[in-house]
Amino acid sequence: MIRRKPIITASTDLAVEKRPRPPKERCRPHKWLSEESMRSYAESDGAFELYISKTAEERIRNHALSKKDDVVEVMGFLLGSIYEDGGKTYALVRDVATTDLDATSVSVKFDREGFERLFESMDDSCFNYVIVGWYHSHPGHGCFLSQVDVDTQTKMFSGPYHSALVIDPVNVEIAVFRLKEGSVEERPFAIYWDEYQNPYYGETVMARKKRSEQ
Ligand SMILES: [Zn+2]
After folding, report:
1. CA-CA distance, 207 to 186, in Å (whole number)?
2. Which residues surround the ion ligand 1 when the cut-off is CB under 5 Å?
């Protein structure tokens, strides 16, 4: 297999492909949602702006749980694609990229060096993706965006499809946030699985499509 450098697409040169959302029967709410978020999931029409593959979700959860006992924060990028369905865009998270960063229990260093190391760790991937957001953990202090988190979001993840996932492995909680007109809002999301689960699925399907068109 030819290893290609990942292509990190900026929002301005993003070509959004049309693709139906993962079907409802292959989606599930995250088990760590708060009661309120669980309710809004149940009341939703199933058309979310964010879908996270079971594979990516497991990686995030395991990453957070691995540092739970040390009460250390973990951080990484959410990688995937942006699609359009019914005139609305949504993001699919297929994988995550992370590396061990200089973290303490209350802050994750999100600096230049950290970014370079993250990009290096992504060179091992062989599909094209977009950074659709980031995740980090708040071991023991709940899910919210701190002022530093809001600053990070504003500086680095200001696109409408960008999400900030916060996970608390101690209190067993998860929530996704986004910025809307400068203020923080919770973003409902779904976990999806089966054939969409494989991070390389998109590439395989596109290659097949092209062959059959010829
Ligand atoms: Zn935080």
Report:
1. 36
2. 146, 149
